[in-house]
Amino acid sequence: MDYFEDSLQHLLAELERIDLLIAAQVSRAREIFTSDEQFRGLYIPEDEVDGLLAQPLGKPRWALEPARRKVLTSKLDAIRQANERRTEESLRRGVGLRLHRLERLFGLDPFEVDALLVPLAVELDLRYERLYAYLQDDVTRKRPGIELVLNLLSPSMEDKLDRQGRFVGAAPLVRHQLVEVVEDPSQPNPPFLAKYLKVNGRIVQYLLGSDEVDERIRSFARMCEDGVTSGVMPADGDLRGRVGRFMRSGAEAGGAMVYLRGPYGVGRQTVAEAVCRELGARLLVADVDLMARDSDSAWAAAFSLVHREARLQQAAVFWKHYDTLLDDQNNGALRAFVRNLADRPELTFLAGEMPWEPADTLRGIPFARVELTRPTFSERSSLWSAVLDGSGPADEGLDVAVLSSKFKFTGGQIQDAAATAMNLARMRDSDSPRMRSHELYEACRLHSNQKLGELARKITPRYRWNDIVLPADRLDQLREICNHVKYRDRVYGEWGFDRKLSLGKGLSVLFAGPSGTGKTMAAEIIAGELGLEVYKIDLSTVVSKYIGETEKNLARIFGEAETSNAILFFDEADALFGKRSEVKDSHDRYANIETGYLLQRMEEYEGVAILATNFRKNMDEAFVRRLHFAVEFPFPGEADRRRIWESIWPEETPRDPDLDLDFVARQFEISGGNIRNIALAAAFFAADGGGVVSTAHLLHATQREYQKMGKVIAHGAFDGHARSGAARRGAR
Q1: Looking at 171-311, which runs of residues are DSSP E strands?
Q2: What is the pLDDT of residues 617-662, one digit of tens each?
């Protein structure tokens, strides 16, 4: 046949030359080994010692005579020429020959190919173990030593000495880990020639037709399935074309690299997959976060194996979480990565969130940085519609526009949230699941960044509009805040106001009023109305006496909040948002820097931030002017206190029909928070005696609340109302 039908047939044909070399050496060895075969290898006969002494330095023990060498060379040349003709025809017919591809991929010369075939023979047929043991005069040495390989393949002493360098670190066979130079454990610190060669296991499997990823990198690297897209393509349709053209031109010049920067789910890997499909390349994804980190050498070995695998698979590499290497503690790993770039595949994608410029690191390599941003409101709406159509049935009344406005998700996060919502629907009704709005909102909250919970306290919204008592104008302001969030994308995006604003498009709100007037309750109501989570941050715990620490704490909070899709509620804002003072010393200067830093982060933040203060008059007016809303929570008057007393009771609480709420509302000037405490205490008093909340229980609980506040009830405050003995005793 004038061509090879497959890669294995080509490999076996090339091994015929190795068989011929082994046969010639075995024939010569039989002539030399004339001593008792029964004890050969166990002792050295006298005539053999004499032969060793007479043998010139470096000359093989069983070097062939010129005539026999000439005959052998002629036969080897005939086989080589025949294989070359069949190889050319096979390639013309489109038959993939893996040994030939390996030779081209790693720049192997004919000697290196044969040096690979000698130890490979053992992996294909165990009879070679006995042949190699015979030629090495040692039944325990079943793998070919370096000396045996050189003896088989080197016709002269000069060639033998020169080719020893093919088995050291910089040579292709070793540098690309095609073969391993191994020491015999029974012979510590052996001479270099006594070490033996072993073909790397992944290379053996590759030559035999396997495309399984090397088991040593399988924990952090995988091949993308052809035709299967991992996520949603970014809305910028021209982006893929620009990246594709850049990579194509770079590949033609020897290679190119692109840094795809953006948050999770924005479509970095999807872009790489699309570009590879257009270029006819496969994609190997390696997750840097999952790689071994015990030493720089471990990093270097992992990088080398990934690059080698990409070459074997004729694939581009997508380095997921590449910015892990940009951490200061991973400087050694970054240097190891750069060193390995010399062996990189033609196409390399880096993916991360941190900004990075290679400076002179990649000088000479075509490099581009591509910023992938979060989708706009209209793009999110389109993504939600497309994903929900493909995820399963959903409520017909689901408002995709409102959902898109409240949760600034990337395409990947939208897919994740839809899948979670469908699972919630299956849990509720496994027979005919149908996503409901509350399940989709719950899924969106679950897929918002949960790390914020490590820096702030999550509050589950329980209050509704009918739970809060405020003047009508203040309630209108709270509803306007909700509408600002609901329709911000329409105003900023569709109506073009985002082009008029240079900073963030979020919402900064001030709640000012005495303690207990409903500031936290209002934040919960807004969160409940919008279907968002609210995180409470006590600023008194954020402020630090150490210079720079306050800014670090605030940076962490706002950094995590960027992807949380939650409302930030800063309580005790007086600890930081006091009136900016005249600079008299370094402490005043740094206090003003902290306030200025917070103002800067609030202006850049695109979420909802609510600041709560008890003393509006102490706040710098220049600061307040840059807020979107300032809501005053007044101390409740008698009419408002009466409404609070009426609304504070759960429907299930048993109450005396003669419960005199008018009296307590008129007589005790307290805030809504105090009223809540009194009502709860009165319920416990009633549970202990009588089972029905009475006015006497309210008065007793009021007395306890005043004691807790350090106040004294004025003499005669209970006059005008019939009190029980227990209440009178509590008033004394």
Answers
A1: 179-182, 196-199, 221-223, 256-261, 282-287
A2: 767 677 777 788 999 999 999 999 999 999 899 989 999 888 989 8
The two structure tokens encoding residue 31: 């002539």
pLDDT digits (tens, 9 = 90+) for 489-533: 788 877 888 777 766 677 888 898 888 899 999 999 999 998 888
Question: What Å distances lie between residue 500 and 495, 497, 599, CA to CA?
Answer: 11, 5, 20
Rounded CA-CA distance 367/357 in Å is: 10
For residue 8, the number of C-alpha atoms closer than 13 Å in the C-beta half-sphere is: 5
For residue 628, the 8-state DSSP code is S
**Residues 300, 172 contacting (CB under 8 angstroms):** no
- State whether the Cα torsion 568-572-577-583 is positive or negative: negative
- Flag whether pLDDT at 46 surpasses 70: no
Summarize the confidence of residues 271-289 as an average pLDDT. Answer: 91
pLDDT digits (tens, 9 = 90+) for 178-192: 999 999 887 888 899
Strands (E), 519-598: 533-538, 566-571
3-state helix, strand and coil shares in percent for the chain, rounded to the nearest 5: 55, 10, 35
CA 471, CA 636: separation in Å to the nearest integer?
9
Instruction: Of 264, 360, 385, give the one whose Cα is nearest residue 321.
Output: 264
Structure tokens at 227: 């035709």
Q: Round to whole Å and give the CA distance between 341 and 591.
A: 47
Gap between the Cα atoms of 259 and 257, Å rounded: 7
SS (H, E, C) 488-536: HHHHHHHCCHHHHCCCCCCEEEEEECCCCCCHHHHHHHHHHHHCCEEEE
Number of alpha carbons in the 13 Å side-chain half-sphere of residue 294:
4
| 325 DSSP 8-state letter | G
Supply the pLDDT for residue 726: 42
| Orientation angle between helical segments 472-486 and 519-530, nearest 10 degrees | 40
Tallying the residues shown for the chain, one arrives at: 732
pLDDT recorded at residue 33: 62
Taking CA atoms, 443 is separated from 231, 380, 385, 403, in Å, by 18, 16, 16, 12
Amino acid at residue number 154: S
Helix or strand (DSSP H, E) at 275: helix 268-279
User: For residues 409 and 380, what is the distance between their CA atoms, to the nearest angstrom?
Assistant: 7
Neighbours of 425 (CB within 10 A): 22
Contact, 528 vs 521, CB < 8 A?
no
Q: Both tokens of residue 430?
A: 């496994």
Helix, coil or strand: residue 349: strand
* Distance in angstroms (rounded) separating the CA atoms of residues 560 and 555: 9
**DSSP H helices in 429-471:** 437-446
Burial of 634 (0-12, 13-18, 19+ CB in 10 A): middle
Q: Please list the residues that pair with 349 across neighbouring strands.
A: 258, 318
Give, in order, the Cα–Cα distances in Å from 382 to each of 188, 273, 355.
67, 22, 29
279 vs 245: CA distance, rounded Å: 9
3-class state of residue 633 by DSSP? coil
Residue scoring higher pLDDT (160 or 346)? 160
Amino acid at 374: R
Neighbours of 436 (CB within 10 A): 18
pLDDT for residue 463 is more than 60: yes
Q: Are 527 and 448 in contact (CB under 8 A)?
A: no
Instruction: Give the position of tokens 């190119």.
Output: 256
pLDDT over 90 at 252, yes or no: no
Rounded CA-CA distance 140/134 in Å is 10
Tell me 583's DSSP state: -
Q: What domains are there in the chain, each with its CATH number?
A: 7-207 (no CATH), 221-371 (3.40.50.300), 379-443 (1.10.8.60), 465-632 (3.40.50.300), 638-731 (1.10.8.60)
